[in-house]
UniProtKB/TrEMBL annotation:
Domain of life: Bacteria
Keyword annotations: 2Fe-2S, Iron, Iron-sulfur, Metal-binding
The protein, known as: Ferredoxin-6
Record carries keyword Iron: yes
Domain 2Fe-2S ferredoxin-type: 2-105
GO biological process terms held by the UniProt record: P450-containing electron transport chain
Pfam families, per the entry: Fer2
A single MF term (Gene Ontology): electron transfer activity
UniProt record similarity statement: Belongs to the adrenodoxin/putidaredoxin family.
Cofactor (UniProt): [2Fe-2S] cluster
């Protein structure tokens, strides 16, 4: 359906194919992206799937609900464009998405 790019904190880039309807977290895990632990399996309960969305893409990733926002407040390296990747559902509109990985997860 499209491609997205994960950039590690070291600058190493990983371009992966995405499928409609899967979460950004699942795309990372399925492709062995280092730095996405996803300990809770996508339940918005661990904060270990934190990514920092490229400024140009933050609006395309959709809105943040209260649960995600609460979890993000506890996340090291939180930025203005932080998201929990398990809460971002991939679609054609995210073809080309670029996200950065923090140096540390929770
Ligand atoms: S996988 Fe646990 S909060 Fe996203």
């Amino acid at each position: 359906m499209g491609q997205i790019t994960f950039i590690e904190h070291t600058g190493t880039e990983h371009v992966v194919e995405i499928e409609e309807g899967q979460s950004l977290m699942q795309a990372a895990v399925d492709n062995g992206i280092p730095g996405i632990d996803a300990d809770c399996g996508g339940a918005c309960a661990c904060g270990t799937c934190h990514v920092i969305v490229d400024n140009n893409w933050i609006h395309a990733t959709g809105s943040i609900n209260a649960d995600e926002l609460g979890m993000l407040q506890l996340t090291p390296d939180k930025s203005e464009t932080s998201r929990l990747s398990c809460q971002v559902t991939l679609s054609e509109s995210l073809d080309g998405l670029v996200v950065r990985l923090p140096e540390f997860q929770m």
